[in-house]
Amino acid sequence: MYHAFMYQKKKIKLYISDLMQEPVATYPSYYLLSMVMHKNEMLHAALIALHSFDFSHYSVPKDFEDIFATFHTGVFSIFKEKYVVGYFGNKMMYLESHGWRSLPSSEDIFKRENWLVYLS
């Protein structure tokens, strides 16, 4: 007899201390990720930027096409200098310590100044 829990993929903790020596933002101290996301260097770069508050490689998008262009290249955006955001299965998802969550539709999403996109 197979149970649903047998099909769940194993999640791994990625500690911020493994990515950088002295993070400015220490919360959350880890993120629970799939093996693929745990090894994703673009995600690592976004997390380092977020936890160091070094957004020198990011800018406010000119329009929403910039945000989606970033997603389609596999790079992660940053929302409100607080969350790393990815685009999976036609959904914008933000990363919190226990994994990816759907980004709730709110008025804040439609304000370009709340977004930072990676400069290519």
Can you describe what's shown?
The termini are far apart. Helices cover 24% and strands 29% of the residues. It has one domain (9-118). With 120 residues, the chain is an alpha+beta fold.
List keywords for this structure.
alpha+beta, 8 strands, about 30% strand, 6-stranded antiparallel sheet, about 120 residues, single chain, two-stranded antiparallel ribbon
Q: Could you give the topology of this structure?
A:
Layout: E1 11-15, H1 16-19, E2 30-34, H2 35-38, H3 41-52, E3 58-59, H4 64-72, E4 77-79, E5 83-88, E6 91-96, E7 99-102, E8 115-118
Antiparallel strand pairs: 1-2, 3-8, 4-5, 4-8, 5-6, 6-7
Short structural description:
The protein has 120 residues and is of the alpha+beta class. It has helices spanning 16-19, 35-38, 41-52, 64-72, and strands at 11-15, 30-34, 58-59, 77-79, 83-88, 91-96, 99-102, 115-118.
- Helical residues, percent: 10-25%
Strand content: 25-35%
Name the structural class: alpha+beta
User: What's the N-to-C terminus distance?
Assistant: 50 Å
